[in-house]
Amino acid sequence: MNLIFSKLARHNVFSSTYPYNQASFRFISMFSNFKIAFTSSTKPERAPRGTQVRGDYKELIPRVQNDINIITTQLAQYENKSLLRKIIQLMKKNHKEQIEELKREHGGTPKHDVKLFHLLKTQLAELGNLLDIFKNNFIHSLYDNHLLDYKMQKLESSSGSKLSSASSGSSVSLLSMGEVDDNVVDDAPDYLLDPISFEILTDPVVTPSGITYEKEEILNHINSKGKYDPISKQPLSKDQLYPNLIIKDTVEAYKVEHSK
User: Fold this and answer.
1) Residue 222, Cβ neighbours under 10 Å: how many?
2) DSSP classification of residue 2
3) H-helix or E-strand containing 52?
4) Distance separating alpha carbons of residues 132 and 153, to the nearest angstrom
5) What is the DSSP secondary structure assignment for residue 165, as one 8-state letter?
6) How many other CB atoms are there within 10 angstroms of residue 239's CB atom?
7) pLDDT at 192
8) Residues 215-229: pLDDT tens digits?
9) Which of 6, 24, 56, 171 has the most Cβ atoms closer than 10 angstroms to its Cβ?
């Protein structure tokens, strides 16, 4: 059985006539925002605009793997941050285990290439979504930096103006919290950041996998992407989310300390 795929312009993502998860296409327009981090020895080859790729599953598998290599190379530019590096490594480990399990169950059978092809396409979509999340965080960080510069200039131009100190009580006002967030989020430890938005947690909830998310972010993920943990890939429903009071108290203590 031959399959026909159309290479999307500039981004080697497969398109076909059969149903395909549209989430994998969301990252197509993002690459112009970044400096491509290819090395001279491992740079993947990209297909020319409009190239038609024909072949059976066994012939098409290396082309999907090539697209995975391209996105993996793009993700590598974020590995300078420990939290992002851990997420990338966890996803790579999960993908490797899926391929090994598939080989154990179907290796040497006619079904192997078919199942491997579709598994790799799913992994390609997951990597694309991850790159999309990182890209959105990158743009948000640029906005935060611009906003912080504006605030600092405003403070410097105001004669004798100072940031109001945080309350000495057990909690900090919402206004003070907002002022602190813009100034300390970049220096906050990784375990106080939401792994989806990469912002300081304000309403942290923990999943059965032991991963803590911002409640609003994980609910948005469940509603828009599916009922699964975005990092561990385990099934996840809204009623399985529980407040992480320890992290919440830690965040509040961190903000109080850094508002001094």
Assistant:
1) 18
2) -
3) strand 52-55
4) 32
5) P
6) 6
7) 84
8) 999 999 999 999 998
9) 24
In this structure, what token pair is assigned to residue 121? 């396409």
Q: What is the mean pLDDT of residues 237-260?
A: 83
Nearest residue to 259 via CA among 192, 174, 159:
174
Q: Which of 57, 145, 59, 64 is nearest to 106 (CA)?
A: 57
Q: Which residues contact 28 (CB under 8 A, 6 or more apart)?
A: 8, 10, 11, 13
237 vs 60: which has the higher pLDDT: 237
Q: What is the pLDDT of residue 99?
A: 92
* Residue 41 reports pLDDT greater than 90: no
Return d(Cα 82, Cα 93) in angstroms, integer: 16
DSSP class of 188: S
Strand pairing partners for 14? 7
Pick from 16-20, 83-87, 231-235: least confident: 16-20
What is the rounded CA–CA span in Å between residue 51 and residue 3? 14
Task: Report how far residue 218's alpha carbon sits from residue 204's, in angstroms, rounded to the nearest whole number.
Answer: 10
Is the sign of the CA dihedral 168, 169, 172, 175 positive or negative?
Answer: negative
Torsion of CA 236, 237, 243, 246, to 10 degrees: 0
- Domain ranges, ordered by start, for the chain: 3-136, 163-258
Residue 31 Cα distances to 23, 75, 132, 191, 195, angstroms: 16, 11, 10, 28, 21
Q: Which amino acid is at 172?
A: V
Q: Position of tokens 């938005």?
A: 197
Token pair 């509603």 is found at 223
